[in-house]
Write a structure and sequence with these properties.
The structure is a homodimer. The first copy, chain A, has ten helices and no strands. By secondary structure, chain A is mainly alpha-helical. Chain A is elongated, with a radius of gyration of 18 Å. The N and C termini of chain A lie far apart (54 Å). The interface between A and B is large, with 36 and 36 residues.
Chain lengths: 189, 189
C-alpha cells in the first residue's frame, strides 16, 4: 500500500469488489465490506443504498454521458455515427476507472445470473434513451432503435473485451475497433 | 367461442395471458389461471413449473431452432448471413403462434421490469449460443459475438414491431426488413 488513501467511497468500492470476487456477491454483507475498508456500516450506507449499488451506482451518470454524446453530434451525422459519439463519451468516462477494478466488477457480474440480468437491463435502458435522442434528431423507426441497440452491443462487447482482459489497448480504441467490426460484419454479404 | 377446443396446455396459455393482461402478472395465481381455463391447478402444474413458464416455456426450443438455422447455413455464408438463417428459423416457429397471443405476451412482459429482465436474459442466451456456432464455423472474435448480438437485436426489434402491432406484415417479412435496416444503418456513414 502506498501512502495515498482513496476517499471513503473509493475504499468501500475497492473492498466490496475484492470481497465479491473472493466470496461471491451473495455471500458478502455490507457490514463485511465496511469492516474490510476500515469504516463503519453507517458510512457504507451513507454512500450506497445497498451492496448492489456498488456495482451499478454509476450507471445513471454513464447513461447521461452517452445521451449527451449522441445529442451533441453534428446534425449531419447519420444515426450510427451519432451513436459512436455517445460511445466515445462512455469510453472517456469508463476509461478513467482503474482497469483492475473494472475487471473485478466484470468477473463478479459474469458469475451471478441476477447481476447479469441487471447489467443487461441497464444497457437496455441506455439503448432506449439513445433511441429517444435519435428520434428527436429526426431518425425514424425502426432505424433509431436498431442503431441504438447495435451501438449498445458495441459498448457491451468492447467492455467485455477490455475489462475481461482480452484486449490490452485503451477502452476508447477497443470501442472504436468494435464499431468498425460491426460495420464490417453488417456489410459482408 | 367456436366448437373447437384447444388442448389443455393451449387453454392454460390463453387463460394465463388474458389474466396477466387484465390484472397484471404479479396479481395472477396459478389457481386462477386453471379456474379460468376450466381445469384444475394440478393440471396447470403438469404443464408448467410456474406461471412464469407460461411466458418463457418455449424459449429453449426457440434457441435450438435458431442455432440449427445458423449451423445449417452454407459454409460460404458470411457471419451475418448465417445468423439471418437462424432468424428465418425463428420467424418460422414464432410466426405460427396466434398474433393476438404474441401481442398479449408482449404487453405483459413490457409492463413488468422483472419479466423484461428475464426476456433480455433469454435473448442474451440465444446470442451466446449463436456466437458459439459461429466460432465453430471459423468466425473469430469479436466478430462472432458482434454478429450474434446484432442478429438478436434484429430479432427483438422485429418481434416488438410485429407483436406490438407496429407492422402488419408477417413476422418473416418484418424480420427480414429489420435485418436490411441494420445493414443500412451500419453502412450509412
Amino acid at each position: 500500500m502506498g501512502r495515498w488513501q482513496p476517499d471513503s467511497r473509493g475504499r468501500l468500492q475497492e473492498a466490496a469488489l475484492a470481497l465479491f470476487a473472493e466470496r461471491g456477491f451473495d455471500q458478502t454483507t455490507a457490514a463485511e465490506i465496511a469492516a474490510q475498508a476500515g469504516l463503519t456500516e453507517r458510512t457504507f450506507f451513507r454512500h450506497f443504498a445497498d451492496k448492489r449499488e456498488v456495482l451499478f451506482g454509476g450507471s445513471e451518470v454513464l447513461k447521461d454521458r452517452i445521451v449527451a454524446g449522441v445529442a451533441g453530434a453534428p446534425k449531419s451525422n447519420p444515426p450510427l455515427d451519432a451513436v459512436a459519439r455517445g460511445l466515445d463519451a462512455a469510453a472517456g468516462m469508463l476509461g478513467e476507472f482503474r482497469r483492475d477494478l473494472a475487471s473485478q466488477r466484470h468477473t463478479v457480474i459474469a458469475a451471478n445470473p441476477e447481476l447479469r440480468e441487471r447489467e443487461l437491463a441497464k444497457v437496455g435502458d441506455y439503448a432506449a434513451a439513445v433511441a429517444t435522442v435519435l428520434r428527436r434528431r429526426g431518425v425514424g423507426e425502426p432505424q433509431a432503435t436498431i442503431a441504438a441497440e447495435a451501438g449498445m452491443t458495441v459498448l457491451r462487447v468492447a467492455l467485455e473485451r477490455w475489462a475481461g482482459g482480452h484486449d490490452d489497448r485503451g477502452l476508447a480504441v477497443v470501442m472504436n475497433d468494435a464499431m468498425t467490426q460491426l460495420r464490417m460484419v453488417a456489410t459482408d454479404s
